[in-house]
Design brief:
The chain has helices at 16-33, 42-48, 65-75, 118-122, 147-152, 161-165, 169-181, 187-194, 203-214, 219-228, 231-236, 242-255, 264-272, 280-286, 291-297, 308-314, 329-337, 351-356, 361-383; strands at residues 3-6, 36-40, 57-61, 78-81, 86-89, 92-95, 98-102, 110-114, 133-135, 140-143, 155-156, 184-185. With 384 residues, it is an alpha+beta fold.
Length: 384
């Protein structure tokens, strides 16, 4: 029997239009077919954590495939996974409960069948906190795997060892969930992850999980489990020294208060590259990073001592607010003092103006450099 927690206000934070869409489908399925509907996955977890959720997955029990498809077609739902019994209605996923059995290699090597019971369906989830189910009709949360306790203790614990090891992507999900939620991976679950190979995953799926980690609020947790779960070693052969690991963790933890939202995906790797032995280009290639990462993450690294000259020269090509090193307090201070936070550095002269003054070729470049240095010196005296 599951642990049951009443939750009459589950949808209190849901916008009215989305709630109306949920109710239209679930009421119809209940009234016409007697199908029970449950919110599953992250939405239940996030509700209990007091976090806003607009991404709902709903599983429908007690209805045949034929009736489910007929009902969803009638309501205007769009099939998005025929073999997985999934329909999308107004950005909400409605599906039949399923079981997945590994029958081949790779992330697509699964045979999908229908589950009949709630516990049976929830067993396929990765972690106990993601296996919670909200009974829409009875306004109750069902917990078959002690997920409520793990949620309270901020722990990620594997639901079922055998099914977990069949999907190697779940190792990366452990890392990004820890970074997003600030949860610890339970020790036995951690050991399980360490022994799962990741070479069957396509790079686009690898990067999708890394990007979630890069955007997370607890980057130091992401860093810890990048190594503790064996991910860094499996994917790009990285092992970091204890000293570098501790120092990097502190920098990541403290620096987040200065992160700009638009650059949030890039800070983790930009900062970490100074502490990792592996070449940053190899890391980017190993995780399938898109071109935007190559531009931002491999930009000029911060020097040991940040100076006015460094900040001014860095801002010659773009404002400092576009530079992934702009999390550093001294970079912020100097950039704003030099007025290059949101604009490029003004040398006081352009190449065209120097041409008009009679400079050309090598002499033009040398004069442009001289004027630049002169301007930097003038501004540095004002800042200092």
């Amino acid at each position: 029997m599951p642990t049951i927690k009443t939750s009459p206000n589950f949808f209190s934070q849901t916008n009215s239009q989305q709630l109306q869409n949920i109710k239209r489908v679930t009421d119809y399925l209940w009234e016409q077919y007697g199908a029970k509907c449950y919110v599953v996955g992250g939405a239940v977890r996030d509700h209990l954590l007091g976090q806003e959720c607009n991404d709902y997955d709903i599983e429908c029990f007690g209805i045949s495939v034929e009736d489910f498809e007929s009902a969803m077609h009638y309501l205007g739902g769009q099939g998005v996974g025929k073999s997985f019994f999934v329909y999308k209605y107004k950005e909400i996923d409605f599906s039949l409960p399923r079981l997945e059995t590994k029958v081949g290699t790779g992330h697509k090597g699964f045979e999908v069948t229908l589950a009949k019971k709630e516990k049976e369906a929830s067993k396929r989830r990765d972690f106990t906190v993601n296996a919670l189910m909200y009974d829409i009709q009875n306004e109750e949360i069902l917990d078959f795997w002690q997920g409520l306790d793990d949620l309270e203790n901020r722990i990620l614990r594997v639901v079922d060892k055998s099914s977990f090891t069949e999907d190697s992507l779940r190792v990366l999900r452990a890392m990004q969930f820890a970074a997003r939620l600030g949860f610890k991976v339970e020790s036995e679950s951690c050991r399980l992850c360490q022994n799962i190979r990741l070479d069957d995953l396509p790079k686009e799926r690898i990067f999708r999980e890394f990007e979630k980690m890069f955007r997370a609020s607890y980057l130091h947790y992401g860093l810890y489990y990048l190594f503790a779960l064996g991910i860094a070693n499996h994917l790009f052969g990285e092992e970091v020294s204890k000293g570098n690991f501790i120092q990097l963790g502190r920098v990541l933890q403290k620096s987040q208060k200065c992160f700009m939202e638009k650059l949030r995906p890039y800070y983790f790797l930009f900062i970490s590259r100074n502490y990792f032995k592996t070449d940053i280009y190899k890391i980017l290639e190993s995780i399938g990073a898109p071109n935007s990462y190559y531009k931002k993450v491999t930009d000029v690294a911060l020097p040991v001592k940040v100076t006015c000259t460094f900040v001014a020269r860095q801002s010659l090509k773009e404002p400092i607010m576009e530079y992934a090193g702009n999390w550093h307090p001294e970079v912020i201070r100097i950039a704003k003092s030099l007025n290059v936070w949101d604009s490029v550095f003004d040398r006081g002269v352009t190449p065209t103006e120097l041409l008009e003054e009679g400079f050309s070729g090598k002499a033009l470049g040398e004069e442009l450099e001289r004027r630049t240095e002169q301007k930097i010196k003038e501004l540095k005296e004002k800042v200092l």
